[in-house]
Amino acid sequence: MIDAHIKLGKDYISDGKDTTESEILKEMEKLHLDGCVVYPAGSNISLEIERENNERVLKFGQENPNKIFPVCQLNPNYEYDLFFSEFADYKKKGCKGISIDTEVYGWDAHSHHGRVVFETASNLDLPLFISSGVGLPLGQPIRLYDLCREYQNVKVVLVYATKSYVGDQCKVLADECSNIYFETSLGPNIRSLKNIVKKYGANRVAMGSGLIELMGHSVYSFENSGLSQTEIQQSTGKTILEIMGIEEVQVC
Predict the structure, then answer these.
(1) Residues ≥6 apart with Cβ < 8 Å to 232
(2) Cβ neighbour number for residue 85 with a 10 Å cutoff
(3) Is the pTM here over 0.85, yes or no?
């Protein structure tokens, strides 16, 4: 099993929570998880702080290969040359994806900065992990429609995709765009989870928690969802590896 979404470091945006590397590894061991996709905690203070946070996540991944998979985050309102060069450097150091937080940065997919993000992801062959249902109205998933249709080679993971008040938009987007994936952090209920897997396939659903306190809940939800073992294995591990372009991972 691989958790597709945990944040590392001090969150300067919401509740100030500070999650350490040792806490993540301890919870993974407790839950017998084989891997974890780790993001930097929320911060929009400065480019220097963002770089420090990303380097910390990358170092965590370098010290725990095939176990910690780094996803980096940067203000998506920078212009293309800076945004691209930062992520080109991060990819060389092991970055497996680009995180976009619409709430933290006020990112508008309909602005030219939307194209900056998708063009970077396309040129670097990195998946996008885009928060959905936060920072409304900009965080409405349906606002991604045009770019997802244009950049069909870019895998787009809808983070928090199963929140009830944006769930229908996520489904409409997924109906129209085969490059859309559901990430389940901060939810869902077991019935909704089963319905999503049955409708879209386990290969388009990735188990995520969002908060270290919810990792156990995520595992419980999938294991008790009524899904087949094949569907559970796919959605709790294989899907996220496929999204990140990783063929296999050594079980810890």
Answers:
(1) 202, 222, 223, 225
(2) 12
(3) yes
